Amino acid sequence: MTKIDPEKERQRLTTLYAALSHLELQKVGKNPESLTDCAFEALREEMNRRGLDWSGKDMPPPSQIVHSKPVEDDPDNRPIVLRRYRNAPEAFVAKSLLEDPFCKTITLCAWIASGPTRSAESN
Predict the structure, then answer these.
(1) CA 52, CA 26: separation in Å to the nearest integer?
(2) pLDDT digits over 55-80, tens only?
(3) Which of 63, 65, 19, 8 is nearest to 43 (CA)?
(4) By three-state DSSP, how is residue 111 classified?
(5) Which letter does DSSP use for residue 62 in this model?
(6) Burial of 75 (0-12, 13-18, 19+ CB in 10 A)
(7) Which residues contact 38 (CB under 8 A, 6 or more apart)?
(8) Model's pTM, two decimal places?
(9) Can you tell me the distance from the alpha carbon of 17 to that of 28, in angstroms, rounded to the nearest whole number?
(10) Which of 31, 34, 29, 36 has the alpha carbon at shortest distance from 52?
């Protein structure tokens, strides 16, 4: 496999980005963490040269970004069932109330079709 010369790749990307329109350049910059460091730096230089604003403006190069541990790996951060519903319409109403933009609750609705449970009967 051929090894890429970093300086030639940087020059290639600089030329490529200089030929793009503002809109095309901003599309490339929408996901800066997915770029290589070389592509990121070439894009940053071109964006700065044109005076364009983009999401990677104040970001470090992608290789220096520290990714946090996924939430799924945390055993103490598991969803719990708050209430069970006999039918979907009742559950959808409750879910819509909890998904209100002012409510910061993550919900999990569990539907059961095999008759009422104790929690459903009490409500």
Answers:
(1) 8
(2) 888 888 888 876 666 656 666 767 67
(3) 19
(4) strand
(5) G
(6) exposed
(7) 6, 9, 10, 13
(8) 0.51
(9) 9
(10) 29
